[in-house]
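User: Here's a protein and a ligand (nicotinamide-adenine-dinucleotide). What would the complex look like?
Assistant: Let me lay out the input and then the predicted complex.
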Amino acid sequence: MTITDFPTTASGVRSPIPDRHGPSLGERALAAPSLGERALAAARFQLAEASRFLGLDDGMHHMLATPRRSLTVSVPVRREDGRLEVVQGHRVQHNLSRGPAKGGIRFHPATDLAEVTALAMWMTWKCALVGIPYGGAKGGVAVDPATLTTRELERVTRRYVNEILPLIGPEKDIPAPDVGTDEQTMAWIMDTYSANAGYSVPGVVTGKPTALGGSLGRAGATSRGVQIAALQALAQTGRAHSPEGATVAVQGFGKVGALAAQYLADAGCRVVAVSDAGGAVVRPSGLDVAALRAHAAETGTVHGYRDADPLSHDELLELDVDVLVPAALEGVITADNAPRVRARLVVEGANGPTTPEADLILAGNGITVVPDILANAGGVIVSYLEWVQNTQAYSWSAGEVEVKLRDLMENAYRAVADLAAERDLTLRQAAHAIGVGRVAEAHRMRGLYP
Ligand code: NAD
């Protein structure tokens, strides 16, 4: 078959693959950039800015902009009705200079290599910023878990893990939950890895059920970190020395968003609006977050909650509140809607929710953004504590875990806020300067092999 034999698609691009298999590479290149490509462009922009600030040479900048290893795998899955479907998965290890790679696994239909690369890069800076001895990694499988049965999900998970098996391990690369994955997913990963090893290896994943060596406090750790960062920012920006009555809107009501809303409400804040993929709800006098969580657990969405009014997804981002917590996906605060954001503080529970263009607009409007690599670092901090407990075959109490989490979060926040004040940077620029600087320092100290 020569190139001229390929069928021409509707868009006029010659495709080697018939249409029913989706767009060809040529069509994809002509299509608008994916969410992941935009996230990767943002991550590269932030790195370039940090590299300039730190005076890194071009070679070092190039090395830090390039993932160390990327693996793309095909995951064949047998559906309940007997059909065979093939989905794509990825695992990217962005940097290993400060220790084994660490990062979540995302199950989402739109995930692609670019998104996973961006998320892995942010993991590298995050681990360095909070001072835990890991490099950055991320994984993703392009499936919608909501459309799979539990048995199908288990098969996808186990087969994906089998395909990335050569890369992962407690001393090499340690996955954790992210969008669309949870404790159960981590249990299947641990079991698949252990079955191949021939013995139980709890330290291969974090965010496991406590029955399998998961850490107390891990399930709520990212949200607890968001709460700690939000309260520090509220105090620092002078909005409130006590969080009492500060108003909060949360986008995304999953593992991070629902508990972030709960912990902020527990601290005295008034959570007035939340959203998830199914819709958004608002109650200016304050939502009963526990009741809303129960409603979402029962129905699968916050939509339809009785003691609140419906709201559009866009309206939630533009509410006049003290704190906006984006805790869903990347690229939601953009140049388009940033001029209409009225929150005083944006505390990024999600990774990459604010584009670089939006960052400029928010800063120009006096809105403080507590960046993802700081605000949502609580998850990887307690993942690290879980891994330490697993490798020592020891466990800490919930109180001990929380003290260590708080200590690392508060130290990181202070370091970022101090550098930002000293050098007139945004909190994101300061956080990246610290994270990227520490990774560059590790490279310099280790030297280059051979
Ligand atoms: P999750 O799958 O548990 O929850 C995602 C939530 O976002 C769901 O409620 C979903 O309905 C909602 N959502 C999706 N599209 C939406 C939209 N357009 N508008 C409003 N809501 C929408 O995922 P998670 O683990 O809570 O992760 C959320 C974010 O936090 C991601 O960016 C993830 O990378 C980041 N993060 C997660 C962890 C962790 O420990 N799970 C740690 C650090 C960062």
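Summary: The longest helix spans residues 398-423.
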